[in-house]
Write a structure and sequence with these properties.
The protein has 507 residues and is an alpha/beta fold. It is 30% helix and 19% strand. The chain has helices at 4-21, 56-72, 99-102, 116-126, 153-156, 175-191, 216-222, 233-255, 288-292, 296-302, 323-332, 345-350, 354-363, 375-379, 385-391, and strands at residues 38-43, 77-83, 130-135, 139-141, 161-164, 167-170, 196-199, 260-263, 307-308, 339-344, 367-373, 415-421, 426-431, 444-451, 464-468, 472-474, 483-491, 501-506.
Length: 507
């Protein structure tokens, strides 16, 4: 098939969705166990020393346990920071190994065959979870005194970088920097089976009071030819980020059209007081648009990103940035695109608000999941948060909502579903033709179980027992006297689900 067609269809579909969204209700009935819900978790590596203390074998064990614990807590998408400071958690000819991995930037793991990104992808996929490769686009140093590896691109082109405060950044105004960042992303997408590329709110850096961002050279070199006057620097900066986002979307779509591009912006797009038409949120805080030069609403409207994940980290009733107010604003301004909500676990736990925040998000018609910061809290079950999710909001498994704006269809039904007995186990097996480069074929399988007299209803999340890339499922043994119906469906790369094959078994 012509996969470029997928991209064209996606942009056409977006127009249809955005036109129809305003006619739909903004509120829906809350489903306490939704079958389709994005449940992500951010795992940062910047500022972390834990990985530096592990050899490759220990890190493999740690990462494997990390994925297992997240899976048990109901998480279905791991957003892992693989490029914290223009350095990497994977082997690259473009950038050096990360200092947060080995302690010294450019130093490789003790096992030269160990690839943390490839390992994480495999661990996530075998549990039916997604791996989103999280990159910081512009940041090079979190502290100006941090040494850079001799192979770092800075030493080849120091004129392409600027210091702001105590940090070092790629200059966002330079076209060659945008091209390099796209080259990094193309390298990841082409070599790894990532489900998505992810960026957070670090575009132009957070402003330092009284210190202008030092981009005079790039502004003088490019602004005029791009149609911006001397008084339009803010618009020029926004255009620089717009160009990067657009280039990244086309880079990803041109490499693997089924890989998504997601952004998690700061939680306030624009304050109402700063929008002449009053279209901003009824808030009073730092803005994506005016302070970070990130026009996230435009990116969503144009279809340059595949999901939007604003960070709504404030409390319910917060004086300057009320969670509920912002949730409703983003829900009303989604343009038919996938929308998830970023939740601050610690703040929510401190105020005992997490359940209510999730309930409110499920009430929004265009919100289809949540993502949790700081992921290590779930990993360590801090304050019993992992247990609470398992017993409450995540008591049933959930499938990631289909990315129908990219492709809407069904993978073919699995064939020859049968039960097999061996000396060691009793399992189900089935056949399904796979084509790794065809995203419309099966990537995973969903296993449902129903009791003997229970209606087979695939809309019930409670009946999902596993999501797996394997074409078999090991059955539990319960003494041989209990009757069940099992159903198996296929999921394609876009999370579209096929029709079910069914079989009756006795366990």
């Amino acid at each position: 098939m012509n996969y470029f067609r997928i991209t064209l269809i996606a942009f056409t579909a977006l127009l249809v969705l955005s036109c129809g969204a305003s006619r739909q209700s903004l509120i829906r009935t809350v489903d306490t166990s939704p079958k389709h819900e994005f449940r992500g978790v951010w795992v940062q590596t910047v500022g972390q020393s834990r990985y530096q203390q592990m050899n490759s074998a220990a890190m493999k064990h740690y990462l494997s346990e990390m994925v297992r614990k997240f899976d048990e807590a109901g998480i279905n998408a791991l957003i892992f920071q693989v490029r914290p400071e223009a350095d990497t958690f994977y082997p690259s000819d473009l950038e050096p190994w990360s200092r947060f991995l080995t302690g010294v930037q450019g130093k490789s793991p003790d096992d030269p065959s160990f690839d943390p990104l490839a390992f994480l992808i495999e661990e996530c996929h075998k549990r039916g979870m997604e791996l989103h490769a999280w990159l910081n686009p512009y940041r090079v140093k979190t502290n100006i005194n941090n040494p850079l590896a001799p192979s770092h691109i800075y030493w080849k082109y120091p004129e392409r970088f600027v210091q702001y405060g105590n940090q070092l950044f790629f200059d966002p105004g330079l076209p060659e920097n945008r091209s390099f960042i796209c080259q990094v992303v193309r390298d990841i997408v082409s070599r790894y089976d990532v489900d998505a590329v992810h960026m957070d709110d670090y575009f132009y850096p957070y402003p330092i009071a009284g210190t202008p961002f030092p981009d005079d050279n790039s502004f003088n070199a490019y602004a005029g030819s791009q149609g911006f006057s001397s008084g339009q620097r803010a618009d020029w900066r926004r255009n620089n980020v717009n160009l990067l986002i657009q280039q990244l979307k086309y880079t990803i779509a041109g490499t693997k059209p089924w890989v998504r591009f997601g952004v998690s912006p700061f939680g306030i797009y624009r304050n109402k007081r700063n929008t002449p038409d009053g279209s901003g949120s009824d808030t009073n805080g730092l803005e994506n648009y005016g302070d970070l030069y990130a026009d996230i609403k435009l990116w969503v409207e144009k279809g340059w990103i595949d999901y939007n994940l604003p960070q709504l980290y404030w409390e319910i009733g917060h004086e300057r940035a009320d969670y509920t107010t912002l949730l409703q604003w983003w829900n009303a301004n989604n343009f038919g695109q996938p929308l998830y909500i970023g939740q601050d676990l610690q703040r929510s736990m401190d105020k005992n608000e997490l359940d209510e925040k999730i309930r409110q998000s499920r009430e929004m018609s265009f919100v289809h999941g949540n993502c949790f910061w700081y992921g290590y809290l779930i990993l360590e079950n801090s304050g019993g948060i992992a247990d609470a999710l398992k017993a409450g909001a995540h008591r049933a498994k959930a499938l990631i909502p289909a990315y129908t704006h990219l492709h809407k269809g069904r993978p073919v039904k699995v064939k020859k579903l049968t039960q097999i007995f061996t000396e060691d186990m009793h399992f189900l097996a089935w056949e399904h033709r796979r084509q790794p480069q065809n995203p419309e074929t099966a990537r995973q399988f969903v296993i449902y179980r129903f009791s003997a007299n229970e209606k087979v209803d695939l809309d019930r999340a409670e009946n999902i027992v596993a999501v797996t890339p394997d074409n078999f499922y090991v059955l539990p043994y319960e003494g041989g006297g209990n009757k069940y119906t099992y159903a198996v469906t296929a999921l394609d790369a876009f999370k579209n689900e096929g029709k079910a094959a069914k079989i009756k078994v006795k366990l």
